Amino acid sequence: MKALQILIDGFAISSLYATGAIGFTLIFGVSGVLNLSHGSIMVTAAVVAWLVAGSFGAGAYGGALVGIAAAVIVSLVTYGLVVRPIQHSRTIAREEKEIFVLTGTLLWGIMVQEAIAYIFTNNPKTVLPLIGGVVNLLGVRTPANEIAIAAIAWIAMGLLWLLVNRTRGGKALMAAAINPRGLTLCGFELGSIHLLVWTIYGVLAGVAGVLLGSFLGVSSDNAGQLTASAFSIVVLGGLGSVTGSLVAAYVVGYLESITAYLVNPSIRTVPVLVLLVIVVYLRPQGLLGRR
Amino acid sequence: MKTGHWMLPAAAAFVGLAFNAANAAPPIKIGVIAESSSVSGASIPKAAQLAADEINAKGGVLGRKIEIVAYDDHNSATDAVRAFQRAAREDKVSFVIASYISEVVLALEPWSARLHMPMITPGAASDEISHNIYKNYNHMKYVFHGYLPSTFIADSVCDGAKDLLVDGHGVKTAVVMSEDAAWTLPLDNEYLKCLPKIGIKVLDHIRLSPDTTDFTPIFNRIEAKKPDVIITGISHVGVQPTVQWAAQHVPIPMFGVSSQATTSTFWKDTNGATDGVAFQTVASPGVPVTPKTNPFTNEYTKKFGATPSYAGYTSYDDVYMIADAIKAAGGTNPDKLVTAMEKTNYVGTIGRYVFNGKESPFTHTFKVGKGYVTGLMVQWQNGKQVTIWPPDVAQGKMTFPSFVKLPK
To answer: ∠ CA(A87), CA(A177), CA(A208), 5° rounding?
Structure first.
């Protein structure tokens, strides 16, 4: 019974982790940027969805869509206002740019987080569930929304797979990850590819944020934790590897769930951190990393 | 002639200046340190400002205005200590109203003693705050505990549980679920003592991390013990356990302390998941605990768009008590202020405040019981906070959503 509960609960949480982390790894793969404002973007999506669904009466679906749109906007602003100026700056030395981007996105993330706390308080908000009620799943009382969350997360990831593998823009995206210079030589505009990847990222982070908000509730205080969790997953899976992130998200999700159910919910993230240290020691390129 | 031209206006200006200076004697400053981005903390400076505005509109204290100087401590003891030092040394405040977090207040206590800066907390609950004053009165006497100590809160919950749960619904067993924090140590201790006394057997005692986001494993563990009720002690967490309790249809009622549920925005924050949650508090919107409760709640709601949290009521009363003490002390001398505060006999929004003296281990906490401050049990019902206990002020009966099952 408990095993089944862990299986169901772990699956939902892992699917959410995967959706958030895949966007994060995609940006790193394509443009070499570690976006440390990731958690704040997810929180923005959840809080906007909560606001629009509740205060403006747009309902669960309207709120969710506006929430995702908000994440895309913040994502593009992050790129346009923070990342791009640093990448194009002539005064910052090339080898220092990565550090500048890292610090820039970190500070930007804190600014967004503080703004949300200032306007809406740091009290957690919960997004209206897309589906209400509970379902009896082989004897485990499961909120119907939890099943919907896993399904939507997988649909979002499925669409991403189609986009990357079946469309011209998507293929260019993958090519940019492998050899950006080659791509420019073929006549592709690297700038528009970056714009595309930040948009895709915004959608994925938004979906993850809204779903997390309806599943567990999200507070501006969670921003740092969400970034750290995406970062851990991506490092564990191998930087830039989408499949690696997917696998790692499930490893992290299930390890956390098993710890919370069988040991103690207060230490649910500890075994993941231990695993991360071990992987970094023994296999620094991550589970499925290329380098 | 020429000189006369400018001398007249100059003399008039001089007289005017002198008059202004007399009229505007320097204000008496009260520092307010609280986390402004949390629901419970945000009420503290707002309510204090409301009280100061009212006092000033009636002419102030000793012919001086009261000025509230607010500091945001971001829920950090370090920030709070820095704010406290600044309030005392640079901003020259005469009294500090500080925080609803026990950890923060415990960190400020020695500074209040060292700097001889009188301080009162409108919302922290740990017993240690008053025990520290008791153990070292001459040094620590500057600290006042303006909220119920945890032990008294637990007793109040048990009193309510006896009438509502044991006598009303035949409840026999419970699991105690509290967040791991300074204020819940004495709370849980008292729960574990007072629940068996009223006939409720405690089957399990869970202390959860305030960082917990997924409460499913915790509810899972509680359900496995099959208790009749969950007795709560939560303040740092609130929205998430409540929403998950409702989403998962956990069939056990939640009853006890849930500080975030005291504010009116909690219904919206939880999308109504709080329906049926019963919580202990000292005052509630619409309940005339004293003749001052409703006017304050209405004025606050009108001005800030939401009802005050529990710490708002006490913060508002604190400013009035401080103003009275300044009047009685004839100024802002800290030792005289402390003596004057100790003689407080003031009917505020939550009851009559009379502080325990140095002979009580709960030094400088207010007296609890009939004729003083008593607790209420309030329950969220269809978007409204309904007082369900004690019977003399109850607005309605306790009722739960259909997924909750009670023995009878």
So the answer is: 85
